[in-house]
Amino acid sequence: xxxxxxxxxxxxxxxxxxxxxxxxxxxxxxxxxxxxxxxxxxxxxxxxxxxxxxxxxxxxxxxxxxxxxxxxxxxxxxxxxxxxxxxxxxxxxxxxxxxxxxxxxxxxxxxxxxxxxxxxxxxxxxxxxxxxxxxxxxxxxxxxxxxxxxxxxxxxxxxxxxxxxxxxxxxxxxxxxxxxxxxxxxxxxxxxxxxxxxxxxxxxxxxxxxxxxxxxxxxxxxxxxxxxxxxxxxxxxxxxxxxxxxxxxxxxxxxxxxxxxxxxxxxxxxxxxxxxxxxxxxxxxxxxxxxxxxxxxxxxxxxxxxxxxxxxxxxxxxxxxxxxxxxxxxxxxxxxxxxxxxxxxxxxxxxxxxxxxxxxxxxxxxxxxxxxxxxxxxxx
Length: 380
What we know:
By secondary structure, the protein is mainly α. The protein contains 16 helices and 2 strands. Helix 3 (about 70-80) runs antiparallel to helix 16 (about 355-370) and helix 12 (about 285-295) packs across helix 15 (about 330-350). The two termini are about 30 Å apart. It comes from Streptomyces doebereineriae. Belongs to the FPP/GGPP synthase family.
């Protein structure tokens, strides 16, 4: 790669050596800041009340950060398939992914009734507070739900606009756009399967895996890797290796999220620890617990984990958490995460990526999965 190395505050062009994933994320955040400033100017021109109440909340939510994993994986996919020279397209693709993630999270919090996100009130909770403080008429919750849906829609519109602009300026734009289209559809399908499973009270392991794959594995890792690779015109063999690596890493990420949803510390995760259990959300962790309880004849655990109405009491949630420990479900999921992470690294090696890129990918998988992995030729 040739040319000056940009700082996080400068527009990206060509770089003289590959960014690390961390540096790429900083560069994407700088690009994201420019995009958001531009979108906010347009929003104010459209309508000042809308800009203040909705657009500004979306902008603030995106700027507040998050793991930025999708951005980092898109960068790895680009590097793994020979990305070099001008980095603008891949950085703007990363920024579009962060805007899409904002849409997903804002809508997800509305559907789940989650009060916290990224260590602060969820967007719909903040909007309800605004309603009360402004002494508006009507139920605050109904207003907040409607306004939060619009906020998520706006984030999606901004994401689509940015990705489309990027695709139009790229020689590989059609391939990039096809990956984006597929990812959006999978994201919605996964979210629907999630609420459908809750409504039907299913606890099947196969269904839990399907939901985790659609809602998280594809959207968090597999598609971002492919989006980055699409910008290089990657061949079918490299894309196949990336997709396999991404699906395994994405499932490992979701399984870790399942564990954090049951056993995590809200001060660390920035979101409530009991929501998944209290609503009996179908997760891989819950499905494993139900299966193990049935296989061992542990009626107490089976009763605690059985599908049913949401759990109103802290005591019932504690019983559910204890059952996941007693059946061995937590240990099984931990083992599965490690297995998936190691398999992901083996698939990624098939891309023929340089050692630097393989190390960056391994570090990202460890971060996403929350586990240390043994890497080929290295100590664990």
